[in-house]
Design brief:
By secondary structure, the protein is α+β, with helices and mostly antiparallel strands. It contains 7 helices and 18 strands. Strands 1, 2, 3, 4, 5, 6, 7, 8, 9, 10, 11, 12 and 13 form a 13-stranded mixed β-sheet that branches. It has a 3-stranded mixed β-sheet with strand order 15-18-17, with no helix packed on it. Residues 44-75 and 86-93 have low confidence and may be disordered.
Amino acid sequence: MKNIDDRFLARWIANELTEEEKTEFENSDQYREYCEIIDITNDLDTPEYKEDDLFFKIEEKTFKKEKVRKLRYSYAYAAAILVLFGLFYFYKTQDPTYTTSYGEQLVVALPDGSEALLNANSSLTVDANWEKQRRLHLQGEAYFKVTKGSTFIVNTPEGSVTVIGTQFNVNSSTDFFEVKCYSGKVNVTNTNDKNVMLTKGNAVRTIADTSKTWDFNTQNAFWTSGVMSFEETPFLKVLLALKNQFQIQIENEDKYKNERFSGSFSNANLEEAVKILFTAMEIDYHIKDKTIIIK
């Protein structure tokens, strides 16, 4: 099939192709793709419009004044559809990405009815081949509620999670990968291809090349309800959570890179959170503007 340009598509939509052109086009791969887009556009809810208004708006924006010529209404509709072709082609070839900034949380409604609650300073990308494989790419932390169906996969730089229908939390950053299962079953694979099957109340964490599993109470409050909760978590990862939530800087933190923290505190107030954390760790500090200085 020869190259298909906008003029050819406009003639096709207006039903003005010759029989030879129509037959050749209908036997091409492009034809099936454009028919799919037409089917999708037919399902869209569109606002009411007047044919004359639509025609003149398209005409005004498409042609320069000195070259204005009248189009039949069928061509006006064709022009509108061609815009949709461009939009649908763009979105079909892009991976939708959702991001949060410091202190933000975002609920993402996924195409299959599942939900992802994205924590602060994180990003979630929906794979372009979602219809064939439910796959997401996560940087940071998110809580997932997955509807039953085909395999659901969350990939991170530090490992992946595979489920069918369940609720679970994933937290991933450099050399740190943690998964907690709140219902159902979760299969976790780290970068060393080590697999762990989790059920409700099970958790696994990989730090560098070392993995650990433990049990937790699924009824305990955590970040989705405004509480930061940690279980023998490296102190630097706790500080990272503070940075993501409150957009702060922390000086001299490497002095305590080998320390661990277990406990919880509210993420609503910086001073209260820092006081609870540093008092429990018996660390002296002071706050200057948006910087915590560890003594």
